[in-house]
Amino acid sequence: MTGTVDTTTVHLLPQTNLLRALHTVIRDRDAERDAFVAHAARIIRMVLETGLDLLPFEECEVSTPVGATYFGQRPAAPVCAVSIARAGESMESELRTVLPGIRVGKILIQRDTVTKRPNLYYTALPMDIARRHVLLLDPMLATGGTALAAIRALLDKGVPEDHIVFVNLLSAPAGILAVQYRHPQVRMVTSAIEEGLNDNAYMVPGIGDFGDRYFGTDIIR
């Protein structure tokens, strides 16, 4: 699929020097696992905070310790998260640090080795997910096949399309376009939009297999 990324539904983090420094570590093929995990966690926190900011808020007044009134905001709708196993589970601990009581569902999708098509194998979702706004978690958005299968699973449970915020670390243009074409109301958050995909569908410049590097299951070179 070709086309131009619609920036109205893709929220790219500001490309600050700090963010680029964090990316320099996680993109380094020789980075130690502890360094990879620590620096990835910091970026995860950034994209999660941005994703949470896209959820509905309402006005709220509180009295300050000096007797003044502060006109603030508070969440206006229930929220939950759904992580796409396995890599998406890396984002759960950071989210629970921000929202300790948040409900987190799971979706397992794997590609068929012959057809290369994504197959849905398992879901465990909050029973009332249809009335919640959902943060869909997966560090990588490459071709978009897994993302589309996960979004379809949420829609089948009654979640409105515009209640889904898809949170990634890295996104390829092909994956973004695939989601935008099929589900134009789904909003996406990412820390980087990559140049593209190589012949093996890995993102370029990329970081390799995020799940293997994060969980320490990558092949020793």
From TrEMBL:
Keywords: Allosteric enzyme, Glycosyltransferase, GTP-binding, Nucleotide-binding, Transferase. Its cofactor is Mg(2+). Residues 14-217 form the Phosphoribosyltransferase domain. Pathway: Pyrimidine metabolism; UMP biosynthesis via salvage pathway; UMP from uracil: step 1/1. GO terms for molecular function: GTP binding; uracil phosphoribosyltransferase activity. The keyword GTP-binding applies. InterPro entries: PRTase-like, PRTase_dom. Its EC number is 2.4.2.9. It comes from the Bacteria. Gene3D superfamilies: 3.40.50.2020. Pfam families: UPRTase. It is an enzyme of class 2 (transferase). Belongs to the UPRTase family. This is uracil phosphoribosyltransferase. It comes from Actinocrispum wychmicini. The lineage of its organism: Bacteria, Bacillati, Actinomycetota, Actinomycetes, Pseudonocardiales.
